[in-house]
Amino acid sequence: MVDASTRNARTDYDPDWFGSVGQQSKFAIAVIDPTTLIIQRANDAFALLTGIAPESEKSLHLWDIFSDFDEITQEKLYRRHLLHLILRDIYDVDRGDWRFLDEPAIATLKSPPSPEARYIEFWLRSDRLKIERIDPQIDEFADVDLPNLLDREILSQEMWEERIEWSNYRISGHLLWEGLDITPQEQIQRAIALLIEQDSIFEADTFAAIGEPLRSLFRAENHLFLNIKQGQVELFVGSADRVRETQRYALEALQGSPFLRAAEVNRVWNVPDLAQDCPTELEQMLRDRGVGSLLLIPLIRDDLRGLDEMSSAVLGFVALASDRANHFDRLDAERATTLKPAFKSAFRQARGYQFTRIHSSVEWRFRQEAERRSLGLPSEQIVLSNVYPLYGISDIRGSALKRNQSIQNDLLEQFKFALAVVEAADREQEIPFLEQLKLDLEAYIDRLSREVKAEDEVSAIDYLKKHLEIYFEYFRQCGSAAIEAVEAYENACSNEHGYVYQARDRYDRIIGELNANLRATWERSQARMQQILPHYCDLEVADGIDHVLYVGASIIPPDSPKQFSVFHLHSLRYEQLRAMCECARICLNLREEKNLPLDVAHLVLVQDSTVDIFHDEQTEKLFDVRGSRDTRYEIVKKRIDKARDSKDGTRITQPGMLTVVYSTNDEWTEYHQYLRYLVRDEWVDCKIESGTIEPLQGISGLKYARVNVLQHPKE
Fold first, then answer.
1. What is the span of the domain harbouring residue 31?
2. Do residues 436 and 532 both lie within one domain?
3. Is residue 365 one of the residues assigned to a domain?
4. Backbone angles phi, psi at 383, to 5 degrees
5. Do both 445 and 579 map to the same domain?
6. Which SUPFAM superfamilies does UniProt cross-reference here (predicted)?
7. Residue 522, SS3?
8. Which of 397, 567, 574, 617 could form a cystine bridge with 599, CB 3.0-4.6 A?
């Protein structure tokens, strides 16, 4: 910084000007000591803005007040002004158009008057400062022809500032700080910045992030987004204490709603008193939740000519909700109008963002439909016709039983801790009620040791909360043994679940590790398979992994150089079997290397006839199988992993084996060829077991063949 001896330098300012003009200004103004950068005096607007008493100001720096304006930032800004003074007063170099001297900075203020952040735009005024060199022999710019550099923006380059020997200068006068609250403008800009980011505004984190500046800007308690598609209205509601919640309404149910009135006139719509204007279930719900007034922002793509065009013409609505009636005014409406273009862009982008969740092979078809709708054309269902399904499953055998066993072990452990508490209290003082609690716990333990019902995971814990834990305060009065027993019970339950979860945690970790390896293996295989021909792949991970591939001409864009052929179909079928063998080998190695006590069986369902799949916008699934001719395939797919041999009744799937299910001789001929290839590549053993499958819900004639997957290739 500058020479310390300057602390006693003259830093006077015109008190008459400050008293008559500065105190009347709407700008927040502070006089700052140029050597210590401590506030010397400030006007009433500064005190009102910061919430700092006038007497307290004199011991503060600016960086004490603004959360993102630290000492380094202030020093850097101040030195740029000093550089100008050095050039002006020492070198007689002055450019009147050095615009950086008038460029404002923005800092964030968090002060008692407002619990929310305020944004302050401010300027430093250095024109009342004087600077002189202490040692004239030190000349930082002796090697520079400064006058000839006037046409360059030398003040924007840090290298010039680095030349300065700051301690060789003495400063007099005072530095003036002028600030203005621009919170509304900054909130609008920050909201716009969030709205034009790549994340979907309907994602929970983004929805919450946008809500903060919106609620602050409009002084609202809640913000709402309404998304309209396919005759349905999806409502997203957010507030300061609730991140996001959603509800759905039929579009017809909003007939007469102020939301639709706002859409018809395509302008920001004020509902000053919701209690007097709640004709539909939506407004009634908001009224019941304490909403007093609404500010509605309709986001219209095209001219709206009736309710039947709502889905295609309206992107959605944004609404601000206040608990008070008559809350929103003309200024709020103007600010909302300013935000409309950004909201429209965000809603359009959110619909496009859904494409990032869509498999890359079919994204082109969704974009094609989105383009149709953007032109105002009626929506059409996305259908991919005549595609071949390739279904497979890697199923963790007995996972439900092992899960029940882990539940049983945890419940028994917790009930034994509970019994120890009651027995310790009973030894301290025999009370009949305690004896009854003890007998109830013993009966519960006896029943749990014999069987665990589906509802026990919840009901047993609820029983302990209501019949044991509510008495802990009393048990702590029953001697040291009871206190220790209560502490042991609570320690056993001290986890995120709030109850004993050791056995289930071990089971979850085992299943999680196995599933993670299966998924990673399958995704590596998918990368190879997509190179053969783009196709749609749907993976579901639960106790194991299910997959279904859909392969066909309707999945390939018409202008693609690579079009579907029988060769691609056969290549992908063989690759599917190779991927299943790789998954099986991974499971065998994990079982051996990490001693995972789980068996995994693998199955592929063959179907040489095609199906049609369609996108239903009302469901979470990307595609469903359509049509009565495809019902047989869906029934078989859902039940085949539990199917049994028609002769001996054994499961057709066995741990460590790959089972192929088929129905025609042609299918077997094709897949027998693939099995020969797998034997040749040392994926499977050459011995093939086969049989006929028991009828599945009236579907008969299915056959199977299975082979052992080799854990390691032969030497």
1. 4-181
2. no
3. no
4. -125, 130
5. no
6. GAF domain-like (SSF55781)
7. helix
8. 397
> 394 in a domain, yes or no?
no
Q: Using the Cα atoms of residue 339, residue 335, residue 316 and residue 199 in order, give the sign of their dihedral.
A: positive
The secondary structure element, H or E, covering residue 707 is strand 703-708
**Quick one: residue 663, left, alpha or beta (phi over 0 = left, psi -120 to 50 = alpha)?**
alpha
How deeply is 526 buried, as exposed, middle or buried, from its count of CB atoms within 10 A (0-12, 13-18, 19+)? middle
CA distances in angstroms from 25 to 17, 18, 38, 179, 352, listed in the order given = 11, 10, 21, 11, 49
Query: Do residues 84 and 146 touch, judged by C-beta distance below 8 A?
Result: no
Residue carrying the six token digits 């690759």: 575
Question: Closest Cα to residue 28, out of 55, 57, 56?
Answer: 57
In the chain, the N- to C-terminal Cα span, in Å, equals 76
What was the pLDDT predicted at 109?
81
Q: How many domains does the chain have?
A: 4
The backbone torsions φ and ψ at residue 139, rounded to the nearest 5 degrees and listed phi first, read -125, 105
Q: What is the three-class DSSP state of 377? A: coil
Judge contact between 110 and 118, C-beta under 8 A.
yes
Per-residue tokens: 205: 């984190």
The answer to whether residue 389 sits within a structural domain is: no
pTM over 0.90: no
What are the distances in angstroms from CA 309 to CA 231, 303, 482?
A: 10, 9, 71
For 19-80, where are the E strands, in sequence order? 28-32, 39-42
What pLDDT is attached to residue 238?
Answer: 78
pLDDT for position 393:
92
Residues 6+ apart with CB under 8 A from 558: none
Which CATH number goes with the domain that contains 233? 3.30.450.40
Token match 């400062």: residue? 129
Q: Please report whether residue 111 resides in a domain.
A: yes
Partners of 601 in beta bridges: 395
168 and 248 housed in the same domain: no
Distance CA 682, CA 705 (A): 18
Contact between 293 and 327 under an 8 Å Cβ cutoff? The reply is yes
Same-domain check for residues 348 and 254: yes
344 and 431 fall within a common domain: no
Q: Which residues in the chain show pLDDT less than 70?
A: 1-24, 54-58, 95-100, 111-115, 145-161, 196-200, 230-231, 240-245, 301-312, 349-359, 371, 373-377, 617-621, 627-633, 714-715
